[in-house]
């Protein structure tokens, strides 16, 4: 089973989760960069209003071909209770997503708003099958049991016979 983890991260939390999922599943990481190149203030002053409006950023890579994978994981930071403009663009940039199993996660300060629901709806719109979603707070990022909950959605572990 091949896994691809597509994520955006400006301050490292979403990257940390993505890397741990990659390690546990043997998946490939694709980091999406927002070409706006925000400063910390810029993220709040310019990025957050764009996230609220559901806008798409200019991203690198501009095309994300996932046709060679069985399961696609999408990870977004929460900006103003929404997915980031980079993730809005990344979902639109996915090629070969139709009919694929997908799992969504977000990282936030504790108020994720409708981020997971929004990403799930975008993926469903693209013809993907959403298996589940996990919301991490900044503290959860380091918690093995939280990462395991996400990994279980990606790669169901065999039930122990003991
Ligand atoms: C512009 C901006 C807006 C944010 N908005 C929210 C929010 O609405 N709710 C929340 O709980 N955290 C919010 N946060 C905190 C981030 O979601 C949180 O730190 C997240 O883990 C960042 O992911 P990253 O380190 O991968 O970039 C915001 C952070 C930034 C920079």
Give a structural overview:
Residues 3-162 form the Flavodoxin-like domain. This is ArsR family transcriptional regulator. Helix content is 35%, strand content 28%. It is α/β, with parallel strands linked by helices. The protein has a single domain, classed as Flavodoxin domain (Rossmann fold, 3-Layer(aba) Sandwich). The strands form 3 sheets. Strands 1, 2, 6, 7, 9 and 10 form a 6-stranded mixed sheet that branches. The two termini are 25 Å apart. Bound molecules: flavin mononucleotide. Residues 9-15, 43-44, 47-48, 77-81, 107-113, 138 line the site of flavin mononucleotide. The site of flavin mononucleotide (FMN) has 24 residues, from helix 1, helix 2, strand 6 and strand 9.
Give keywords.
single chain, 162 residues, alpha/beta, Rossmann fold, six-stranded mixed sheet, two-stranded antiparallel sheet, 5 helices, 28% strand, globular, binds flavin mononucleotide
């Amino acid at each position: 089973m091949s896994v691809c983890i597509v994520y955006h991260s400006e301050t490292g939390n979403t990257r940390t989760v993505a890397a741990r999922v990659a390690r546990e599943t043997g998946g490939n990481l694709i980091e999406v960069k927002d070409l706006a190149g925000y400063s910390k203030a810029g993220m709040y002053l310019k990025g957050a209003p764009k996230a609220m409006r559901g806008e798409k950023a200019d991203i690198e890579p501009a095309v994300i071909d996932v046709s060679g994978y069985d399961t696609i994981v999408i990870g977004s930071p929460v900006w103003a209770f929404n997915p980031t403009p980079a993730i809005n663009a990344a979902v639109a940039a996915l090629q070969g997503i139709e009919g694929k199993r997908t799992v969504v996660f977000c990282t936030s300060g504790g108020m994720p708003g409708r981020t997971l629901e929004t990403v799930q709806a975008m993926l469903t719109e693209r013809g993907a099958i959403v298996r589940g979603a996990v919301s991490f707070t900044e503290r959860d990022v380091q918690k093995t049991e939280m990462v395991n909950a996400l990994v279980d959605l990606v790669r169901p572990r065999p039930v122990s016979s003991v």
